[in-house]
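We treat protein structure as text, and this decision shapes the records that our systems exchange. We quote a single record here, exactly as it is kept in our systems:
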Amino acid sequence: MENKKIKIAYCVSGLAGGVCNVIANYMKYMPDDYAVDIITQNITSEKYRESYEKLGFNIVLVPSKSESILGNICALYKLMQSQKYDIVHAHMTLTNFFPLFVAGLCGIKIRVSHSHMAGKITIKSKLLSFLSCKVATDYFACGENAGKYLYGCREFQIINNAIELDKYSPNAETRKIQRNKLGINEETTVLGHVGRFTYQKNHERIIDIFGKFNKINPDSVLLLVGGGEKYQEITRIVSEKKLKDKVIFTGIIDDVYNVIQVMDLFLLPSFYEDYVWRL
């Protein structure tokens, strides 16, 4: 008789890079005795959906809390009651409380809270942290600061944001091929960034830094990898600063490990981060 697979629900705010890439990197090397659902409130791109489905993940879209907290909770309850997950693992840091609270109502015994960032501590963050800790059975974090941010003095386990190192090793041939594809000369200095176009990543600052750098070194370009809700706004800012011919937007791509070979300088002026897998 075939063994029953362990059912895991990974809860994320949006189906984008970052957190989902961490999940994918781990699950590629896990035994084939897990059935994985990724529960998301947002699908940034169909490319993300396709790439995760190729890995065998089932993508489940639920209403966003920003649209309706009640709608989100009801959808989660209905889903978790029907699927009977063995583990619910929330990757939304301060809002881990919501899926883990529902998981508790549904009798799911293993409820993992995972912190992926260290932000500013406020009354709101303290309240959400307290609630998440009350409903979670296990506390994970990507780093020391992220753990202290969400769990305070409670004990937590650090789960490193793993990547496949061989893919990111310097490779002169890949660098040459990728530069040719992007129309970049070998002598040109390339500043770059990989990340979702969202408030946290502070793309405005990246554009500002590059604008000043380009005045000193005109033979330079900025390479921006990713997509997100602020994509159109950032492209507009680039045009307004008359940098359109100097900035390359790749959009959402699957082979970041290849494109990153093109870069000479990597910029990361985020408003808040902790352990950053891009670095």
In short: The chain is about 40% helix and 20% strand. Residues 69-83 form the longest helix (15 residues). The two ends are 45 Å apart (CA to CA).
